[in-house]
Amino acid sequence: MKSLIITTLLVLTTVIGIGNDDSTDTLHVYQFELLEDIGAGSWRKTKKAMKEAADSDAGLILIHVNTYGGLLNAADSIRTAILNSDIPVWVFIDNNAASAGALISIAAEKIFMKPGGNIGSATVVNQTGEPLPDKYQSFMRSLMRATAESHGADTIIVRKDTTIVWKRDPRIAEAMVDPDIEIEGISPKGKVLAFTTKEAIKYKYCEGEANSINEILDKHATQPYIIKKQELKLIDHIIHFFINPVVQGLLIMLIIGGIYFELQTPGIGFPLFVSILATILYFLPLYIEGIAAYWEIIIFAVGLILLIIEIFAIPGFGVLGISGIILMIVGLAMAMVDRLEFEYMPILWSVLGKAFFIVTTTSAISLFLSIWLGGKLFKSSRFSQLALNTVQNTDEGYIGIDNTIINIQGKTGVATTDLRPSGTIEIEGKFYDAMAKDGFIDAGTEIRVVEVKMAQLYVRAISN
C-alpha cells in the first residue's frame, strides 16, 4: 500500500510538472537598443545592459542597432565591452550600421541584418564630415582589423600547404575604413567598402537575414527562449538627455548668457539663478556617470571666481580675467571627455579638440546673442527699468562736480605752498588743490584761477 501511494505521487508530479524546473531548458535573452548616434549615452546604456544581463543570468545578449555612427571613443568602449563579455552577444542591424556602428557590430559573435540593410563606411571624419588625416585612419584600421581577428580563423592544410581562413576577413574590415585598400572582386581601390545584407552574408560578415529579433531567435536559437528588454528608468532618460552634446551646448550658452546678464543687471538675481541651474544640469549628470571628475568642476569654479574678482574688485581687465575665462573653458571642455588614456594619442587630441570646439563655439554664440538681446531688452519700454539709460545733460543743470569749484574761475588768491606744478591755494578763506598753468609758483605768490577742468583748478601767478 505504501509503495502504491509513492508511485501515484510520482506520476502526479510528473503529469502536472511539480518539482520539474525547466528553466535550464529556456534561453534567457537580454535585449537592448542602440538606435541613435553613438556617444556617451550609448555607452551608458551598454554598461547598464551588460550588468543587468549578468545579474539576470542571461544566456544571450541581443543588440538592436540602427545608427549612422558617432563618437569613436564611445564606440571603442562598447566594442571592448562586447569582446570581453562572458555572455554571447548577437547584433541585429535594422537598416544601418555605419562607421562606429560597424565597429560595434563586428565585435559581436553573430550579426544578423534586415533586408536592404548596410554595414561599413567607417572612415574617421571631423565635425564637418571631412576625412581626418591618415594617423586617425590608421588607428581606426587597427581597431577594425583587431576586432575582426578576435573571432579567430580556421587552418586548412592541403598537401602540406597551410591556408588560414578567417571567420571575418580582417582585410575587409580595414577596407571599410581605407579607400586605398583594394580587395579583388570585393572592394575596388578608391572606394570605402560598405556591404548590403546580401553581400555581408556572402563574405561572412553576416550570419543571416531577418526582419525582426523574434525571427532571428526562431531560426537560430537551439531552445525555447524568453526575451527581457532593457527598461530605462526616468533618471536614465534624464541623464541620457543631458549628456547629449547638443543639450550640453545649450546649457553652456545658458551658463555664459546668465553670467553676462547678471553682470549687466546686478541685484536682479534671475540670470544668476539660470546660470547656476544650467551649471548644475551640465556637470551633475557627467559626474554621476563618472565622465566628469571633481577637479574639472573645481577648475570651472576657480575660473568663475577669478572672473568675478577681475570685474568687481580690480579696475580694467587683465591677467585675472583672462585666466578666469581660460579656466572656465578648460573645466567645461574637460568635463565632456570620458577618459584621457587611449591607445593612440591622435584620438585623444581628436576627442579633446571636439570638446573644446563645442565649448568655445557655444560660448562665443552665447556672448554674441546676449549682447544683441541685451541691447534689445534694455531699450524696450517693458524692460527699460532693468538698466539706467537716462542721460543727464549739463544744459539741464546736471553736472559731475561741485558748483562752488566752477564759480571760482577768474577769482584771485594766494599760493599757500609751492606749486611744482601742483600744490595748495587759498581763495576767500578756503583752501583748494590747484596746478600751475605755466612753470612753478612759489608759496606766498598771488594767483588767479584761469581754468576749471574736470574738477581741477589751473592758476597763473599775478604779475606785479
Structural account:
With 464 residues, the chain is an alpha/beta fold. It has 3 domains: 25-232, 2-enoyl-CoA Hydratase, Chain A, domain 1; 235-385, no CATH class; 394-461, Nucleic acid-binding proteins (OB fold (Dihydrolipoamide Acetyltransferase, E2P), Beta Barrel). The protein contains 15 helices and 15 strands. The protein has helices at residues 2-16, 40-55, 72-83, 100-107, 134-149, 170-175, 197-202, 213-220, 234-242, 245-264, 270-288, 294-312, 319-336, 345-379, 403-406, and strands at 27-34, 60-67, 89-98, 110-113, 118-120, 153-158, 161-166, 194-196, 208-209, 225-229, 412-415, 422-427, 430-436, 446-453, 456-461. Strands 1, 2, 3, 4, 5, 8, 9 and 10 form an 8-stranded mixed sheet that branches. A 5-stranded mixed beta barrel has the order 11-12-13-15-14. The chain has a two-stranded antiparallel sheet with strand order 6-7. Helix 10 (245-264) runs antiparallel to helix 11. The radius of gyration is 38 Å and the shape is elongated. It starts with a helix and ends with a strand. Mean pLDDT is 82; it is low at 1-23 and 340-344.
Could you name the ranges where pLDDT drops below 50 across 5 or more consecutive residues?
1-23, 340-344
Q: What percent of the residues sit in helical stretches (DSSP H or I)? A: 40-55%
Count of separate DSSP helical elements: 15
Distance between the termini: 153 Å
DSSP strand tally: 15
Name of the top-level CATH class of the largest domain: Alpha Beta
The general outline is elongated
Rg, Cα atoms, Å: 38 Å
CATH superfamily assignment of the largest domain?
2-enoyl-CoA Hydratase, Chain A, domain 1
- For the record, the CATH architecture of the largest domain stands as Alpha-Beta Complex
In terms of structural class, how would the helical and strand content be classed? alpha/beta
The main β sheet shows up as: 8 strands, mixed
Q: What is the string of SSEs from the N terminus onward?
A: HEHEHEHEEHEEHEHEHEHHHHHHHEEEEE
Q: Characterize the quaternary organization of these chains.
A: single chain
As for the number of domains, it is: 3
Instruction: Kindly report the average pLDDT value.
Output: 82
The proportion of strand residues reads: 15-25%
CATH topology of the largest domain: 2-enoyl-CoA Hydratase, Chain A, domain 1
